[in-house]
Amino acid sequence: MWVSLRVITLLLTFLLLGNGLYADDRLHIITLNDQLEYPWAMAWVNQRRHVLVTLKRGQIALLDQQGKKKAQFNLDLPIAYGGQGGLLDIVLHPNYPKNHWVYFSYSQALSSGYTTAVARAKITVNPPQLTQLETIYSAQAVSDNTHHFGSRLAFDAKHLLYVTVGDRGERSRAQHLTNDFGKVLRLTDEGKPAADNPFSNSSDKRSEIFSYGHRNPQGLVYDIKTNTMWLHEHGPLGGDEVNRLKAGKNYGWPMVTYGREYSGLLISKFTSLPGMISPEWYWVPSIAPSGMTIYYGELFKRWQGQLLVGALKAKLLVRLPLLNNRIQREQRFALTARIRDVEVGGDGAIYLITDESKGKLLKIIPRQ
Q1: Which domain of life is it from (predicted)?
Q2: 62 within some domain
Q3: Number of domains in the chain
Q4: Averaged pLDDT score across all residues of the chain
Q5: Is the distance from CB of 56 to CB of 66 less than 8 angstroms?
Q6: Which CATH number characterizes residue 281's domain?
Q7: Are 69 and 37 in contact (CB under 8 A)?
Q8: Domain-located, residue 14
């Protein structure tokens, strides 16, 4: 019996290693700051010498490369802090060095409930200053629920802004094009629907919609070298997905999914259907992905153009190598905290923020 158990253990270990579930490369992790109250996202500014970090209660912290706080901005916005809501993602306008516009998403409190909203402000580092704060878009996804806001932001090469909106817990609405529930929106930098959106000429469909059938997307990144917008989203019990976004496409939720109800019951018996886009990659069981970037830098030379994903539930950094713009496999790096966001610094290091009451800004470099 002892021999057979040992053989089984060795076989399982081999299978796990072969599938890339354990990291072969070792990482050196440096804690730069451990006093960030529930941080959600970050964006590098000032030629990547400073980083802006959103805090869910409604502040933006300005830190230097060593993690020291230089300033903190309080946002006068109707931010609904609670549940999964608060001040959420942050991105720079592609022409930030000239116009200083910074965009951020938040859960907006309205008289009728809560929704995902996008605001912008001009932020400078020297001196630290925030001016011209304005909300430019409120999603047509109002609900009493305080979860599934989605809320990731990314600009493409045409300076169009993509906004993810979760299904807000009202899953069937993700399949309807008369609302923003479970959608990715594409807007101008002033918050208007992009003129060439797929449903711009349809009177019975919302013109801001770029894609639909999403559950709760919390990862979004644009690869300018391949002109690809990558998105990942939370599944329920299993079924987290990574997708390449395409105009006007239906990504299936809740009609197709690899996940189940939290009770274990089926949501749908289908994992694919004609006319619906299947995921490029999925996770069963769930890792609860949050934050995603593409690595271009000098420190991890063999990782060029590869996706990096953070994980909340599984407490991971996941590397997804690409070949011909298709995901080939995964490599997991076990961490000790829930990872909320992932970015690459100007020094080529990988930076993470953790989802905690005393959240951390972590710097990752190769271990020598």
Answers
A1: Bacteria
A2: yes
A3: 1
A4: 93
A5: no
A6: 2.120.10.30
A7: no
A8: no
Taking the C-alpha atoms of residue 343 and residue 146, their distance in angstroms, rounded to an integer, is: 26
In a domain, 317, yes or no: yes
Per DSSP, 175 falls in state G
| Token reading at 312 | 């909340």
Which residues are registered as beta bridge partners of 73?
60
User: Residue 111 belongs to what domain range?
Assistant: 24-366
Mean pLDDT of 189-215: 97
148-186: per-residue pLDDT in tens?
999 999 999 999 999 999 999 999 999 999 999 999 999
> Per this entry, what is the length of the chain?
368
- pLDDT tens per residue, range 2-58: 334 333 333 443 344 334 444 335 799 999 999 999 999 999 999 899 999 999 999
pLDDT at 8: 39
Residue 121 located in a structural domain: yes
- Residue 337, strand partner residues: none
Question: What's 262-310 look like in SS3?
Answer: CCCCECCCCCCCCCECCCCEEECCCCCEEEEEEECCCCCHHHCCEEEEE
Among 50, 93, 100, 148, which one carries the catalytic annotation? 148
If DSSP codes are grouped into helix, strand and coil, which group holds residue 315?
coil
